[in-house]
Amino acid sequence: MKKEQNILEAIVKGTRERVNHKKKNLTLEELQDQVRSFPAAMDFPFEKALRTKGLSFICEVKKASPSRGIISPDFPYLKIAQEYEQAGASAISCLTEPVYFQGKDEYLREIAETVSVPVLRKDFVVDAYMIWEAKLLGASAVLLICAILTDRELEEWIRLCHSLGLSALVEVHTEGEVLRARQAGARIIGVNNRDLKTFQVDINVSQRLKKLVPQEIIFVSESGIRTRADIELLERHGTDAVLIGETLMCSRDKKEQLNRLKGK
Ligand SMILES: O=P(O)(O)OC[C@@H](O)[C@@H](O)c1c[nH]c2ccccc12
């Protein structure tokens, strides 16, 4: 238990070190200048895509994870993203955390340049620098994980995201975190069915926490979604969108798998 808990701490520590290193090559001020110098969409395409009628699918491009190890050894990330788009994904989630998920900033940049659906930066944001960076890479949304942020960081960074035209997917796993996310001004709340400290997956966490999220906030269910029955359960409870990684990444025919999940 203790060792497992340390994984989240280790990821956060590694991420802080990486950001500090990046700042030596490009300072926050320089990064902000770069962001301000190019015209960027301010119409929140990620939020819009999730607000459309019916359940929306956010499909994740992920090479590896701490719970599964390597998921896709050859990892043709652009091809995967294009397949997701053609299969009817509303948005794409791209891991950029390089150690535990073997992600890369470049994957995000190239995917955002290639597909026309909005792209979410999936990482462990522990510094505002990473939000500006997400914008520069072409993301339309950023994941903010309640468990690793203070109330003040949450509130400030949700505001920063919105001022940059980025949507914030605010991730929660407990009742207390849902309340913190609401208090901080979240417009999109994602329940992670996987406990990041123990890796245990329980889809009922979404069902339980949905009750605390008012209608006007977009409700996303994340992780461990495998079957049509999972989707039907989530739909019955008023879920707006699902975020699916492994189930799609492990399917040879992603379109067929997505259609199966959609009940087509
Ligand atoms: O591959 P899955 O079980 O379908 O899960 C996808 C996604 O929810 C998961 O990758 C995730 C959810 N929250 C995160 C935070 C950081 C890294 C990864 C995640």
From TrEMBL:
The keyword Nucleotide-binding does not apply. It catalyses: 1-(2-carboxyphenylamino)-1-deoxy-D-ribulose 5-phosphate + H(+) = (1S,2R)-1-C-(indol-3-yl)glycerol 3-phosphate + CO2 + H2O. Signal peptide: none annotated. Pathway: Amino-acid biosynthesis; L-tryptophan biosynthesis; L-tryptophan from chorismate: step 4/5. Its EC number is 4.1.1.48. SUPFAM superfamilies: Ribulose-phoshate binding barrel. Keywords: Amino-acid biosynthesis, Aromatic amino acid biosynthesis, Decarboxylase, Lyase, Tryptophan biosynthesis. Residues 8-261 form the Indole-3-glycerol phosphate synthase domain. One of its GO terms (molecular function) is phosphoribosylanthranilate isomerase activity. It comes from the Bacteria. One of its GO terms (biological process) is L-tryptophan biosynthetic process. Pfam families: IGPS (PF00218). NCBIfam families: PRK00278.2-4. Belongs to the TrpC family. This is Indole-3-glycerol phosphate synthase.
